[in-house]
Amino acid sequence: MNSLDLKSFYTQAEQTKNIVKQLQNNELSHIHFKGLIGSAAAFYFNGIFQKLPLNFFIVMNDKEEAAYFFNDLERIVGDDKVLFFPNSYRNPYQVEQTDNSNVLMRAEVIGALSKSSNKIIVTYPAALSEKVITKKILKKNTLKLKLDEEFSMQSLTEKLHQFDFERVDFVVEPGQFSIRGGIVDVFSFSNENPYRLEFFGDEIASIRSFDPVSQLSIKNYTKVTILPNIQNSMLEEQRISILAYLPKNTVLAFKEIELVAEKLDKDFDKATEAYQKVKTSPLAHFSPEELFYEKNQFLNEIETKNTIEFGTQFYLSPQLVANVKQQVQPIFNKNFDLLHQDLVNKKEQGYKVAVLADSSKQTERLTAIFDDIGKSIEFNSILLTIHEGFVDDDLKIALYTDHQIFNRYQRFQLKDSYKKKSESLTLKELHNLTPGDFITHIDHGVGRFSGLEKIDVNGKQQEAIRIVYANNDLLYVSIHSLHKITKYVGKDGTPPSINKLGSAQWQTAKQKTKAKIKEVAFDLIKLYAERKSKKGYQFMPDTYLQNELEASFIYEDTPDQLKATQDLKKDMEADYPMDRLICGDVGFGKTEVAIRAAFKAVADSKQVAVLVPTTILALQHYKTFKERLKDFPCKVDYINRFKTKKQQTETLKNLAEGKVDILIGTHRIVGNDVKFKDLGLLI
């Protein structure tokens, strides 16, 4: 069984056919889909969506629930068919708290609904409560551009100003545009990436999207639509509910209708309270009734629409009750004997059993664990991630997710398309520089950033970066030479000395640095050669316990975290001494990598010393290691000045006798009285 087979089972299911038949009657339908568990609703909605050319507007109970359901549908239906409709304001009337990525997603939904294309839209009460601009004002403020049509740059600029777009040097987020010669870059609120339009006179010669970080083209277009900020307070027109945008062939679906209505009423009360206090907000001239769903309005409005409710309670009198028999995925708490027995029982009862994961590594790890405990079993492995597994008694399908089996936390993922993607100096980082910042040019040294300026080069206007050096000498660097400059990085609080253009100072500094680097490199090569020539302890390959420890990590490994772990274990399994440095920001998972290395050493009957700089850190790391390894045969202890003399003596005695596997401490652990029975790893 693969993912296509799995989807097919739900497309052909009897309950799917019954709901499709009911919706095809073109009569008012209130359907209560009862008994859905876990991520089963996503499979059923995919089945209905594949059979009917309809739009689905699905309202979950809160943002987190909606985001997880949206991710399930993206993976099952396809991300080009599913949209997320979030709220734009964190608090009513607080325009400065608007999230641009959310506004972009809201505009994307409105744009899709205006085209009557078949989509599944997922939302939640807080997003539904915010009204949007009317269709009339949307049409008035929508700009459609076509390849080879006549449209002057002056007209485009005026139109963008009317849309309240900000003119900048380089576009980095929605609502911005820039002009350079015959090129206009504009970041619409209806697209994840900005558009680049090239003009030949008053004719649009080229339209393409591009990456705002790398400036590389992504896709060519023959026509594009530019949408303004739909939450813009300048668009002073009557606001309407997003439900008014829904085409006639739209089915509303709710987890729990009454709960949604209750939350909409609470949001209106919250907006009314904020309105009494607001004085300076650009939205102050809008009453709560104009911006938000009015109290008691929602249930009356949806009474006349096709609806599906799939929660435990239902409000509208259903014409059809579609009941399914399902159970939640059992909780095993990493008891793999219990999991094995459950899989055996399900297979004997005729269930199709599958473990769903986002990588084959997870299912391979599960297979290895079963092999290690001597209880091998065959099960379907499907590369598909869903939020919650379930057991379907009607279709005889048991779906288990790897993150639930291993007690892992699964994050939901929403669009945030213009976060910084690179640490090098890019156009986006350049946009964030302020005059006076120190900047380093590879050929001329350290100077001060003095802004951007248009200069004449062979009769053509070009954008350039202006850098001020000693004696107020100026250097202009073309934006096409960004690879030659970086933001200065040095000691915190210590300003660098500014170099002088034309002097040998920078070249001398570079030569000295190169010589020093060569010296350090020579010493390192010599050290590495000596290390390679010496025999070190060769740790054995991962055991069942190591696999279980890594599987018990509640978060998904980041790619860098996974690579660091693999490289580290490769070093430990080599026959020469290891010397590896793990680098990363706070909270990026370095401690988890260290714990895995420490446990690998302990599993091979070696002791581990963990050296930390402060007594507080010693205690913190002790608690972290102890909590992480509490379910494994591993004794963790620590030593610092907070311990009494008697406690320290007891710890050192146990260490010498091999009763302590991992010792954590400050420089105290390198004292002459600290004796390890068999030290195998120092962290």
Helix-strand layout with pairing:
Layout: H1 3-11, H2 14-24, E1 30-34, H3 40-51, E2 55-59, H4 63-77, E3 82-84, H5 100-114, E4 120-123, H6 125-129, E5 132-133, H7 135-140, E6 143-146, H8 153-162, E7 166-167, E8 176-180, E9 183-186, E10 195-200, E11 203-210, E12 217-220, E13 223-226, E14 239-240, E15 250-254, H9 257-277, H10 288-291, H11 298-302, E16 307-309, E17 320-323, E18 326-328, H12 336-348, E19 352-357, H13 360-372, E20 380-383, E21 390-392, E22 397-401, H14 402-405, H15 427-432, E23 438-441, E24 445-457, E25 460-468, E26 474-478, E27 485-487, H16 505-533, H17 544-551, H18 559-572, H19 590-603, E28 607-611, H20 615-628, E29 636-639, H21 645-656, E30 662-665, E31 679-682
Parallel strand pairs: 1-16, 1-17, 2-4, 2-15, 3-4, 7-8, 15-16, 19-20, 19-22, 28-30, 28-31, 29-30
Antiparallel strand pairs: 5-14, 6-13, 8-9, 9-10, 10-11, 11-12, 18-21, 21-22, 23-24, 23-27, 24-25, 25-26
Helix pairs in contact: 1-3, 2-3, 3-4, 13-17, 17-19, 18-19
